[in-house]
Amino acid sequence: MSSPAVAQRLAPFGTSIFAEMTRLAQAHQAINLAQGFPDFDGPDFIKRAAIRAIEAGHAQYARSFGVPALNTAIARFYERDAGLMFDPDTEITVTCGCTEAIAAAMLGLLNPGDEVVLFEPFYDSYPACIAMAGALPRFVRLHPRDGAFAFDEANLRAAFTARTRAVLVNTPHNPTGKVFSERELTLIADLALRHDAFVISDEVYEHLVYELEQPHLRLAALPGMRDRTLTLSSLGKTFSLTGWKVGWALGAPALTRAVRAAHQFLTFAGATPLQHAAAEALEHAEDAIPDLVAQFRERRDFLGDVLTSLRFNVFTPAGTYFILADFSRLSAESDVAFCQRLTREVGVAAIPPSAFYHNASGGHSLVRFAFCKQRATLEAAARRLQALRGA
Protein backbone atom coordinates (compact mmCIF):
# COMPACT_ATOMS: atom_id res chain seq x y z
CA MET A 1 0.00 0.00 0.00
CA SER A 2 1.60 3.27 -1.13
CA SER A 3 -0.08 5.63 1.37
CA PRO A 4 -1.18 5.39 5.03
CA ALA A 5 -4.59 3.79 5.51
CA VAL A 6 -5.69 6.13 8.31
CA ALA A 7 -7.08 9.49 7.17
CA GLN A 8 -4.86 12.49 7.92
CA ARG A 9 -7.47 14.08 10.19
CA LEU A 10 -7.43 11.04 12.51
CA ALA A 11 -3.84 9.83 12.20
CA PRO A 12 -2.48 12.15 14.94
CA PHE A 13 -4.75 10.65 17.59
CA GLY A 14 -3.61 7.04 17.43
CA THR A 15 -5.22 4.46 19.74
CA SER A 16 -7.23 5.76 22.70
CA ILE A 17 -5.16 5.84 25.91
CA PHE A 18 -8.02 4.03 27.67
CA ALA A 19 -7.69 1.03 25.38
CA GLU A 20 -3.90 1.07 25.69
CA MET A 21 -3.83 1.10 29.49
CA THR A 22 -6.62 -1.47 29.85
CA ARG A 23 -4.73 -3.79 27.51
CA LEU A 24 -1.55 -3.30 29.57
CA ALA A 25 -3.49 -3.94 32.79
CA GLN A 26 -4.83 -7.20 31.41
CA ALA A 27 -1.39 -8.31 30.26
CA HIS A 28 0.07 -7.82 33.76
CA GLN A 29 -2.99 -8.80 35.84
CA ALA A 30 -3.02 -5.28 37.25
CA ILE A 31 -5.93 -3.76 39.14
CA ASN A 32 -7.51 -1.44 36.60
CA LEU A 33 -7.92 2.04 38.09
CA ALA A 34 -7.31 3.46 34.62
CA GLN A 35 -10.49 3.20 32.54
CA GLY A 36 -13.52 4.80 34.12
CA PHE A 37 -15.97 1.96 34.53
CA PRO A 38 -17.33 0.46 37.75
CA ASP A 39 -16.50 -3.15 38.65
CA PHE A 40 -20.01 -3.69 40.01
CA ASP A 41 -23.48 -3.83 38.50
CA GLY A 42 -25.99 -1.03 38.28
CA PRO A 43 -29.29 -1.18 40.21
CA ASP A 44 -31.28 -4.40 39.93
CA PHE A 45 -34.55 -2.63 39.11
CA ILE A 46 -33.03 -1.25 35.90
CA LYS A 47 -31.68 -4.63 34.84
CA ARG A 48 -35.08 -6.21 35.45
CA ALA A 49 -36.66 -3.50 33.30
CA ALA A 50 -34.32 -4.41 30.44
CA ILE A 51 -35.24 -8.09 30.77
CA ARG A 52 -38.94 -7.23 30.69
CA ALA A 53 -38.39 -5.11 27.58
CA ILE A 54 -36.65 -7.99 25.83
CA GLU A 55 -39.38 -10.44 26.82
CA ALA A 56 -42.03 -7.97 25.64
CA GLY A 57 -40.57 -8.12 22.13
CA HIS A 58 -38.81 -4.74 21.95
CA ALA A 59 -36.26 -6.18 19.54
CA GLN A 60 -36.48 -4.05 16.39
CA TYR A 61 -35.09 -0.63 15.47
CA ALA A 62 -36.10 2.14 17.80
CA ARG A 63 -37.32 5.47 16.52
CA SER A 64 -34.11 7.20 15.42
CA PHE A 65 -34.23 9.98 18.01
CA GLY A 66 -35.36 7.70 20.85
CA VAL A 67 -38.25 5.51 21.96
CA PRO A 68 -41.09 7.78 23.10
CA ALA A 69 -41.03 6.51 26.69
CA LEU A 70 -37.36 7.44 27.10
CA ASN A 71 -37.66 10.87 25.52
CA THR A 72 -40.57 11.61 27.84
CA ALA A 73 -38.65 10.31 30.86
CA ILE A 74 -35.65 12.51 29.99
CA ALA A 75 -37.90 15.57 29.72
CA ARG A 76 -39.48 14.85 33.11
CA PHE A 77 -36.09 14.18 34.67
CA TYR A 78 -34.66 17.56 33.66
CA GLU A 79 -37.83 19.38 34.66
CA ARG A 80 -37.69 17.84 38.14
CA ASP A 81 -33.95 18.26 38.52
CA ALA A 82 -33.33 21.71 37.07
CA GLY A 83 -36.66 23.24 36.14
CA LEU A 84 -35.67 23.07 32.47
CA MET A 85 -38.44 22.26 30.01
CA PHE A 86 -37.61 20.28 26.86
CA ASP A 87 -40.06 19.01 24.28
CA PRO A 88 -39.57 15.23 23.99
CA ASP A 89 -40.13 15.18 20.23
CA THR A 90 -38.31 18.27 18.99
CA GLU A 91 -35.61 18.94 21.60
CA ILE A 92 -34.34 15.55 22.80
CA THR A 93 -32.24 13.04 20.85
CA VAL A 94 -31.21 9.67 22.26
CA THR A 95 -27.73 8.57 21.17
CA CYS A 96 -25.40 5.59 21.62
CA GLY A 97 -23.79 6.97 24.74
CA CYS A 98 -22.58 10.48 25.35
CA THR A 99 -19.54 9.89 23.14
CA GLU A 100 -21.79 9.54 20.10
CA ALA A 101 -23.71 12.64 21.20
CA ILE A 102 -20.39 14.54 21.18
CA ALA A 103 -19.56 13.32 17.68
CA ALA A 104 -23.06 14.05 16.36
CA ALA A 105 -22.94 17.54 17.85
CA MET A 106 -19.60 18.31 16.22
CA LEU A 107 -20.47 16.84 12.85
CA GLY A 108 -23.92 18.39 12.81
CA LEU A 109 -23.04 21.89 14.00
CA LEU A 110 -19.50 22.65 12.78
CA ASN A 111 -18.23 23.62 9.35
CA PRO A 112 -14.63 23.28 8.12
CA GLY A 113 -12.56 26.15 9.49
CA ASP A 114 -14.84 26.86 12.45
CA GLU A 115 -13.14 27.18 15.83
CA VAL A 116 -14.14 25.52 19.10
CA VAL A 117 -12.97 26.83 22.48
CA LEU A 118 -11.87 23.78 24.46
CA PHE A 119 -10.63 23.48 28.04
CA GLU A 120 -7.65 21.23 28.67
CA PRO A 121 -7.00 18.67 30.00
CA PHE A 122 -9.87 17.26 27.93
CA TYR A 123 -11.70 13.99 27.32
CA ASP A 124 -9.70 12.54 24.46
CA SER A 125 -12.60 12.23 22.02
CA TYR A 126 -13.14 16.01 21.90
CA PRO A 127 -10.21 16.97 19.62
CA ALA A 128 -10.80 13.90 17.44
CA CYS A 129 -14.46 14.81 16.90
CA ILE A 130 -13.52 18.42 16.18
CA ALA A 131 -11.00 17.17 13.62
CA MET A 132 -13.58 14.88 12.00
CA ALA A 133 -15.77 17.95 11.49
CA GLY A 134 -12.88 19.84 9.88
CA ALA A 135 -12.92 22.43 12.66
CA LEU A 136 -10.09 23.74 14.83
CA PRO A 137 -9.69 23.69 18.62
CA ARG A 138 -8.63 26.76 20.63
CA PHE A 139 -7.24 25.52 23.95
CA VAL A 140 -7.69 27.11 27.37
CA ARG A 141 -5.54 25.49 30.07
CA LEU A 142 -6.90 24.57 33.49
CA HIS A 143 -4.02 25.17 35.91
CA PRO A 144 -3.54 23.71 39.41
CA ARG A 145 -4.37 26.43 41.91
CA ASP A 146 -4.97 26.14 45.67
CA GLY A 147 -5.52 22.39 45.51
CA ALA A 148 -7.93 22.54 42.55
CA PHE A 149 -7.93 23.61 38.89
CA ALA A 150 -8.85 26.99 37.41
CA PHE A 151 -8.50 28.86 34.13
CA ASP A 152 -7.18 32.35 33.52
CA GLU A 153 -9.93 34.74 32.45
CA ALA A 154 -7.65 36.57 30.04
CA ASN A 155 -6.74 33.30 28.32
CA LEU A 156 -10.39 32.42 27.90
CA ARG A 157 -11.23 35.82 26.42
CA ALA A 158 -8.27 35.58 24.04
CA ALA A 159 -9.44 32.17 22.79
CA PHE A 160 -12.55 33.69 21.20
CA THR A 161 -12.11 34.99 17.65
CA ALA A 162 -14.28 35.94 14.72
CA ARG A 163 -14.24 32.25 13.72
CA THR A 164 -15.47 30.91 17.07
CA ARG A 165 -18.49 28.71 16.47
CA ALA A 166 -18.77 26.87 19.77
CA VAL A 167 -17.47 26.44 23.31
CA LEU A 168 -17.17 22.91 24.69
CA VAL A 169 -17.56 22.71 28.47
CA ASN A 170 -17.33 19.56 30.58
CA THR A 171 -18.66 19.99 34.11
CA PRO A 172 -18.13 18.14 36.37
CA HIS A 173 -14.81 17.87 34.60
CA ASN A 174 -12.90 14.77 33.56
CA PRO A 175 -10.04 14.35 34.45
CA THR A 176 -9.58 17.11 37.06
CA GLY A 177 -12.82 16.57 39.01
CA LYS A 178 -13.48 20.32 38.80
CA VAL A 179 -17.07 21.55 39.13
CA PHE A 180 -17.32 24.86 37.30
CA SER A 181 -18.61 27.70 39.49
CA GLU A 182 -21.48 30.04 38.73
CA ARG A 183 -19.00 32.85 38.13
CA GLU A 184 -17.02 30.75 35.63
CA LEU A 185 -20.11 29.55 33.78
CA THR A 186 -21.53 33.08 33.65
CA LEU A 187 -18.31 34.32 32.06
CA ILE A 188 -18.45 31.51 29.49
CA ALA A 189 -22.10 32.32 28.77
CA ASP A 190 -21.37 36.06 28.39
CA LEU A 191 -18.56 35.38 25.92
CA ALA A 192 -20.72 32.95 23.94
CA LEU A 193 -23.47 35.55 23.70
CA ARG A 194 -21.03 38.30 22.73
CA HIS A 195 -19.46 36.18 19.97
CA ASP A 196 -22.72 34.56 18.84
CA ALA A 197 -21.36 31.11 19.65
CA PHE A 198 -23.25 28.15 21.03
CA VAL A 199 -22.18 25.98 23.95
CA ILE A 200 -21.85 22.20 23.98
CA SER A 201 -22.16 21.27 27.65
CA ASP A 202 -21.01 17.74 28.45
CA GLU A 203 -22.66 17.02 31.81
CA VAL A 204 -22.24 13.27 31.87
CA TYR A 205 -21.11 13.38 35.54
CA GLU A 206 -23.94 15.73 36.48
CA HIS A 207 -25.02 13.80 39.60
CA LEU A 208 -21.60 12.67 40.80
CA VAL A 209 -20.83 15.75 42.94
CA TYR A 210 -19.60 15.58 46.52
CA GLU A 211 -19.38 19.08 48.03
CA LEU A 212 -22.46 21.08 49.04
CA GLU A 213 -20.65 24.36 48.39
CA GLN A 214 -19.81 23.26 44.82
CA PRO A 215 -23.10 22.12 43.27
CA HIS A 216 -23.44 21.23 39.61
CA LEU A 217 -24.97 24.15 37.70
CA ARG A 218 -26.46 23.91 34.22
CA LEU A 219 -25.33 26.31 31.52
CA ALA A 220 -28.69 26.03 29.77
CA ALA A 221 -30.35 27.55 32.85
CA LEU A 222 -28.32 30.78 32.69
CA PRO A 223 -29.93 33.90 31.20
CA GLY A 224 -29.95 33.86 27.42
CA MET A 225 -28.47 30.36 27.17
CA ARG A 226 -31.53 28.11 26.85
CA ASP A 227 -31.59 28.31 23.04
CA ARG A 228 -27.84 28.28 22.39
CA THR A 229 -26.79 25.44 24.72
CA LEU A 230 -26.69 21.78 23.76
CA THR A 231 -26.69 19.68 26.94
CA LEU A 232 -25.21 16.17 26.69
CA SER A 233 -25.38 13.35 29.22
CA SER A 234 -26.02 9.63 29.58
CA LEU A 235 -27.29 6.79 31.71
CA GLY A 236 -23.92 5.12 32.15
CA LYS A 237 -22.14 7.28 34.72
CA THR A 238 -25.16 8.08 36.88
CA PHE A 239 -26.35 4.48 37.16
CA SER A 240 -23.07 2.53 36.73
CA LEU A 241 -24.19 1.04 33.41
CA THR A 242 -21.43 2.29 31.12
CA GLY A 243 -21.70 -0.65 28.73
CA TRP A 244 -25.32 0.11 27.88
CA LYS A 245 -24.30 3.19 25.90
CA VAL A 246 -27.53 5.15 26.30
CA GLY A 247 -26.92 8.88 25.95
CA TRP A 248 -28.81 11.98 24.93
CA ALA A 249 -28.57 15.53 23.63
CA LEU A 250 -30.98 18.25 24.70
CA GLY A 251 -31.34 21.59 22.95
CA ALA A 252 -33.54 24.00 21.06
CA PRO A 253 -35.07 22.66 17.82
CA ALA A 254 -32.42 24.30 15.62
CA LEU A 255 -29.59 22.63 17.55
CA THR A 256 -31.48 19.35 17.76
CA ARG A 257 -31.99 19.23 13.99
CA ALA A 258 -28.23 19.57 13.52
CA VAL A 259 -27.51 16.73 15.96
CA ARG A 260 -30.07 14.47 14.31
CA ALA A 261 -28.69 15.24 10.84
CA ALA A 262 -25.47 13.51 11.91
CA HIS A 263 -26.93 10.96 14.34
CA GLN A 264 -29.11 9.33 11.68
CA PHE A 265 -26.00 8.44 9.66
CA LEU A 266 -23.76 7.51 12.59
CA THR A 267 -25.86 4.91 14.42
CA PHE A 268 -29.46 5.72 13.40
CA ALA A 269 -30.74 4.40 16.75
CA GLY A 270 -29.59 2.88 20.02
CA ALA A 271 -30.50 -0.50 21.52
CA THR A 272 -34.29 -0.63 21.87
CA PRO A 273 -34.75 -2.70 25.07
CA LEU A 274 -32.07 -0.72 26.88
CA GLN A 275 -33.86 2.51 26.04
CA HIS A 276 -37.04 1.17 27.65
CA ALA A 277 -35.06 0.25 30.76
CA ALA A 278 -33.38 3.67 30.78
CA ALA A 279 -36.82 5.29 30.88
CA GLU A 280 -37.62 3.38 34.05
CA ALA A 281 -34.24 4.31 35.55
CA LEU A 282 -34.89 8.01 35.07
CA GLU A 283 -38.42 7.81 36.45
CA HIS A 284 -36.98 6.39 39.71
CA ALA A 285 -33.60 8.15 39.73
CA GLU A 286 -34.13 9.76 43.12
CA ASP A 287 -34.24 6.28 44.68
CA ALA A 288 -30.86 5.21 43.30
CA ILE A 289 -28.57 8.21 42.94
CA PRO A 290 -28.02 9.35 46.58
CA ASP A 291 -26.68 5.96 47.74
CA LEU A 292 -24.26 5.76 44.81
CA VAL A 293 -22.98 9.30 45.45
CA ALA A 294 -22.43 8.47 49.13
CA GLN A 295 -20.46 5.34 48.20
CA PHE A 296 -18.31 7.22 45.70
CA ARG A 297 -17.62 10.03 48.18
CA GLU A 298 -16.36 7.50 50.72
CA ARG A 299 -14.21 5.74 48.10
CA ARG A 300 -12.82 9.05 46.88
CA ASP A 301 -11.74 9.90 50.41
CA PHE A 302 -10.23 6.45 50.96
CA LEU A 303 -8.13 6.46 47.80
CA GLY A 304 -7.18 10.10 48.28
CA ASP A 305 -5.87 9.36 51.79
CA VAL A 306 -3.88 6.38 50.50
CA LEU A 307 -2.26 8.46 47.75
CA THR A 308 -1.51 11.33 50.12
CA SER A 309 0.19 8.92 52.55
CA LEU A 310 2.43 7.83 49.67
CA ARG A 311 3.47 11.45 48.99
CA PHE A 312 1.32 12.07 45.93
CA ASN A 313 0.00 15.62 45.77
CA VAL A 314 -3.73 14.88 45.48
CA PHE A 315 -6.22 17.25 43.87
CA THR A 316 -9.39 16.19 45.66
CA PRO A 317 -12.19 16.11 43.06
CA ALA A 318 -15.46 17.90 43.75
CA GLY A 319 -17.13 15.73 41.10
CA THR A 320 -16.74 12.77 38.68
CA TYR A 321 -15.12 9.53 39.86
CA PHE A 322 -11.48 10.33 39.11
CA ILE A 323 -8.58 11.58 41.21
CA LEU A 324 -5.79 13.53 39.55
CA ALA A 325 -2.53 13.49 41.50
CA ASP A 326 1.01 14.82 41.06
CA PHE A 327 3.70 12.13 41.46
CA SER A 328 6.78 14.38 41.11
CA ARG A 329 7.87 13.69 44.71
CA LEU A 330 8.08 9.99 43.85
CA SER A 331 9.64 10.02 40.40
CA ALA A 332 11.12 12.23 37.71
CA GLU A 333 9.67 9.97 34.97
CA SER A 334 7.17 11.15 32.41
CA ASP A 335 3.56 10.36 33.19
CA VAL A 336 3.54 7.68 30.49
CA ALA A 337 6.64 5.96 31.86
CA PHE A 338 5.36 6.22 35.43
CA CYS A 339 1.96 4.71 34.57
CA GLN A 340 3.54 1.91 32.55
CA ARG A 341 5.88 1.04 35.42
CA LEU A 342 3.03 1.30 37.91
CA THR A 343 1.08 -1.23 35.85
CA ARG A 344 3.94 -3.65 35.15
CA GLU A 345 5.78 -3.58 38.49
CA VAL A 346 3.24 -2.48 41.11
CA GLY A 347 0.17 -4.07 39.55
CA VAL A 348 -2.08 -1.00 39.51
CA ALA A 349 -3.10 0.63 36.23
CA ALA A 350 -3.77 4.36 35.93
CA ILE A 351 -4.04 6.87 33.10
CA PRO A 352 -1.19 9.22 32.03
CA PRO A 353 -3.00 12.55 31.55
CA SER A 354 -0.62 13.87 28.89
CA ALA A 355 -3.09 12.26 26.47
CA PHE A 356 -5.54 14.96 27.54
CA TYR A 357 -3.34 17.91 26.54
CA HIS A 358 -2.57 19.20 23.05
CA ASN A 359 1.02 19.57 24.26
CA ALA A 360 1.88 16.39 26.14
CA SER A 361 4.13 18.24 28.57
CA GLY A 362 1.02 19.64 30.21
CA GLY A 363 0.43 16.43 32.12
CA HIS A 364 4.03 15.29 32.54
CA SER A 365 3.91 14.81 36.34
CA LEU A 366 0.25 13.87 36.75
CA VAL A 367 -1.59 10.56 37.00
CA ARG A 368 -5.34 9.82 36.96
CA PHE A 369 -6.91 7.13 39.13
CA ALA A 370 -10.54 5.95 38.89
CA PHE A 371 -12.27 5.29 42.22
CA CYS A 372 -15.54 3.95 40.76
CA LYS A 373 -14.70 0.50 42.10
CA GLN A 374 -15.78 -1.76 44.92
CA ARG A 375 -14.19 -0.91 48.27
CA ALA A 376 -12.44 -4.31 48.21
CA THR A 377 -10.87 -3.45 44.85
CA LEU A 378 -9.55 -0.15 46.16
CA GLU A 379 -8.20 -1.83 49.28
CA ALA A 380 -6.36 -4.39 47.15
CA ALA A 381 -4.94 -1.54 45.03
CA ALA A 382 -3.88 0.27 48.21
CA ARG A 383 -1.93 -2.77 49.37
CA ARG A 384 -0.10 -2.97 46.04
CA LEU A 385 0.61 0.74 46.02
CA GLN A 386 2.54 0.38 49.26
CA ALA A 387 5.41 -0.77 47.04
CA LEU A 388 5.87 2.94 46.24
CA ARG A 389 6.56 3.79 49.88
CA GLY A 390 10.07 5.17 50.21
CA ALA A 391 10.41 5.74 46.47
What class would the helix/strand composition place it in? alpha/beta
Side by side, the strands of the main sheet go 2-9-8-7-6-3-4-5
CATH topology of the largest domain, anyone?
Aspartate Aminotransferase, domain 2
Overall outline: globular
- Strand residues, percent: 15-25%
Q: Can you give the mean pLDDT? A: 96
Q: Can you count the helices?
A: 13
Task: Write down the secondary-structure element order.
Answer: HEHHEHEHEEHEHEEHEHHHEEHEEH
The CATH superfamily of the largest domain turns out to be Type I PLP-dependent aspartate aminotransferase-like (Major domain)
The major β-sheet equals: 8 strands, mixed
Rg over C-alpha atoms, rounded to the nearest angstrom: 21 Å
Total number of beta strands = 13
Helix content: 40-55%
Q: Quickly give the CATH architecture of the largest domain.
A: 3-Layer(aba) Sandwich
What is the first-to-last residue Cα distance? 48 Å
**Low-confidence spans: pLDDT under 50, at least 5 residues?**
none
The CATH class of the largest domain is Alpha Beta
Q: Give the count of structural domains.
A: 2
